[in-house]
Amino acid sequence: xxxxxxxxxxxxxxxxxxxxxxxxxxxxxxxxxxxxxxxxxxxxxxxxxxxxxxxxxxxxxxxxxxxxxxxxxxxxxxxxxxxxxxxxxxxxxxxxxxxxxxxxxxxxxxxxxxxxxxxxxxxxxxxxxxxxxxxxxxxxxxxxxxxxxxxxxxxxxxxxxxxxxxxxxxxxxxxxxxxxxxxxxxxxxxxxxxxxxxxxxxxxxxxxxxxxxxxxxxxxxxxxxxxxxxxxxxxxxxxxxxxxxxxxxxxxxxxxxxxxxxxxxxxxxxxxxxxxxxxxxxxxxxxxxxxxxxxxxxxxxxxxxxxxxxxxxxxxxxxxxxxxxxxxxxxxxxxxxxxxxxxxxxxxxxxxxxxxxxxxxxxxxxxxxxxxxxxxxxxxxxxxxxxxxxxxxxxxxxxxxxxxxxxxxxxxxxxxxxxxxxxxxxxxxxxxxxxxxxxxxxxxxxxxxxxxxxxxxxxxxxxxxxxxxxxxxxxxxxxxxxxxxxxxxxxxxxxxxxxxxxxxxxxxxxxxxxxxxxxxxxxxxxxxxxxxxxxxxxxxxxxxxxxxxxxxxxxxxxxxxxxxxxxxxxxxxxxxxxxxxxxxxxxx
Length: 588
Hints:
By secondary structure, this protein is mainly β. It contains six helices and 39 strands. The strands form eight sheets. It has a nine-stranded antiparallel beta sheet. Strands 32, 33, 34, 35, 36, 37, 38 and 39 form an eight-stranded mixed beta sheet that branches. It starts with a helix and ends with a strand.
């Protein structure tokens, strides 16, 4: 009896919708109801009301509460915007809604802006009975010249009264509201020293950067609570900028879920978009779920993220092959060191030939890890020509700081490109001592790899640090970063291994400054180099693992070493230096 009443109610609602939109009953069965730029998407499970520019005023599952109810008074949700260099954010301003498909099983629409400097198509796709929807963006330079953009993103504001907790792969916890934060002392951008800070983070200071994360390590992020969740699932990282070391804002205060398609955060610079450039970002998947507990909701979302990754690339995408090829290729091979060493832990990347991966934003990037024998396979690669780059992530050969490069790799649709053995050229040197390991991270040092928080860099010593090879312990006596006007010294004895020339490699996991910082690298008081890098903002924005990688190499004549104690000094002048590894070797 109850089922019959529900069916009757649904029939009346459908008839009412038909009247409201001027539709026939058959048209009312379609998932999308389109009235100018007002669109209702309803697949029987999820209902979303969109208005001009593709923003959402109503998001509900099974006629439950509106998940964006308490955000629309301040700002809309589901919006897209971009930030031209040196200007304020520009909202996406749609001219029209285009309907690609609309029936009772599937709706695919796009809000389109053809007039702005960055022309954008903002797509949504929903299928019958699914507990979410897909979305993607196509962006095009509409200026006829180079156009500089700091960031391009989509943003999902969710009602914190209903979903009060934030989640990413590094952490989960309660979120504050911006009104609550602003009642306390502001230390820097979106960073506050709060009396109740421990409710929201791992310290008294809460920052929006606490919930940043590496895109490589985050198959989903979102908000949850009360047995419900709203999740952003990127599906594939190929269209995001910066490669495997790219870290980004993911979710923070006010229930804000972020999808930065490109940004200048953490060392990725402003994007000078070339004339006539266009790129498709996504698709990603927005998942709304519920369960018997918050733990069950998270586990279910994780399973759905894995399922979406397996389904990608999607056959339903109707963009040109140049924007979204559905048939991909595979690249495989084996890395071998030229000195016979083992490659048991390396990062392998395919990118545009000649690309500076950290700053690569205009094309697509693919990456994977080797197994314990140097073997790798990269699947679902877009057809095209690529350059391979590999670097160590520690392991048996964690003293190798050089990169492996191989160019002119052609990937064809439906085919496997077998590179066979790729020889990784390494210098003919014998390692005498090493601080840390070559993995482009500071995790092995004191406070390194700790859960993100503003407090860590404030715990760094304001006095000189002295580390003695063979006696000191790197996890206790050497810090992940160096700040202020301090000297970090590495003491070592004159090598027993005799050589005419020695070699010093200094690898930094990142470098920040808040003004005009710099530092000098010295050996026994003699300057080797004055260093002044671009600010990657990582150290003072809660990062404890990495920023932008830098490497310096020096040949050291044997005559420059002394009998007894020798000292490598990092003489800091207000820079914020994050360490990866320091290697001293004999040149054979």
